[in-house]
Design goal:
Length: about 280
């Protein structure tokens, strides 16, 4: 079963939950937050393999090019722009779709490639598998890295630590998920951003439930929203100085605080029951 863990904003607790899920199940964890991966910090893995991911961008043969402008008209990302005397290429903006080459009437466009990031294969300190990707600084799109992570992910049960928000990266990280666990927190920003992700999951028709991190007496707005929209609350992790201290030290909560393991196990039990 592929279980995605996501949130409306950064810092809500995706890695807190996904790393503990991986610990209690010993399942493969893939960290698709390629702009700021951090699961490997908690799983303390040893890298066994690095895989470079490349993107292609157009190269124009000006001896063949007639500056007709069809390539520029096609590209929605302004990665290729015909000017007065030449064609200007912005390789970082190219999404590697190949459309400009297809519409070129003189076959003037070929391709060059560059590395946009890497995928790392590791074993955690508790001997489970970990995959994570890292986008090179300055690159605009890392969708290829996320697709590469999914392509390399093998196993009966997979935990996906998603990027925050509702960006293209998040959508691609969610592809193929059987269930999504949406992490939120009892704050105005937590609720507001949670609503955006709820809409995304509904649009993608991915079944999901809510977990509340740093739960306290201020949960009522989240509970009311979930009740009105028939969304299940899968569990809560309480607001705790001890939990915050363990997390700040780079420890997995389910390992550092064994009494908390039942919280994570019960959440996963509810998810598994849905799958059955």
């Amino acid at each position: 079963m592929k279980i995605a863990v996501l949130s409306g904003k950064g810092g809500t607790g995706k890695t807190t939950f996904s790393s503990s899920f991986a610990f209690v199940t010993k399942s493969l964890l893939i960290d698709t937050d390629i702009e700021e991966p951090n699961s490997h910090i908690f799983l303390k893995g040893k890298t066994s393999q690095e895989v470079s991911i490349f993107n292609h961008f157009p190269k124009v043969d000006m001896e063949k090019c007639t500056l007709c402008g069809k390539c520029g008209d096609f590209c929605r990302f302004n990665a290729i722009i015909p000017a007065k005397n030449r064609v200007v290429i912005f390789g970082e903006s190219c999404h590697d779709c190949g459309g400009c080459q297809l519409v070129c009437p003189t076959n003037a466009i070929s391709w060059e490639k560059r590395e946009i990031g890497k995928i790392f294969v590791e074993k955690s300190y508790f001997n489970s598998d970990l995959l994570y990707g890292k986008l090179n600084i300055g690159e605009m799109s890392g969708v290829k890295i996320i697709k590469g992570l999914h392509g390399m992910a093998k196993g009966e049960d997979i935990i996906i630590d998603c990027p925050p928000g509702t960006s293209c990266n998040t959508v691609n990280a969610l592809e193929g998920s059987d269930f999504a666990i949406l992490v939120t927190e009892p704050s105005p920003f937590g609720l507001s951003d949670m609503k955006l992700v709820v809409q995304l999951l509904q649009d993608m028709e991915i079944p999901f439930g809510i977990v509340i991190n740093k739960a306290d007496d201020e949960n009522s707005e989240i509970l009311d929203f979930c009740d009105k929209n028939s969304i299940e609350i899968l569990g809560e992790l309480p607001f705790s100085r001890e939990i915050a201290k363990s997390y700040s030290e780079g420890k997995i909560i389910a390992d550092a605080l064994p009494d908390s393991q039942e919280i994570f196990k019960n959440i996963l039990k509810k998810v598994k029951e849905y799958g059955n």
